[in-house]
Amino acid sequence: MPPRRVLPAGLPGDPSPRAELERLVRVDHAGEYGARRIYEGQIAVLGRTDVGPMLRHMRDQELEHLDYFERAIAARHVRPTALQPVWHVAGYALGAATALMGRRAAMACTVAVEEVIDGHYAEQAERLPPEEAPLKASIERFRAEELEHRDIGIAHEAEQAPAYALLSAVIKATSRAAIWISSRV
Question: Among 15, 23, 29, 77, which has the minimal tally of Cβ within 10 Å of its Cβ?
Answer without folding.
Answer: 77
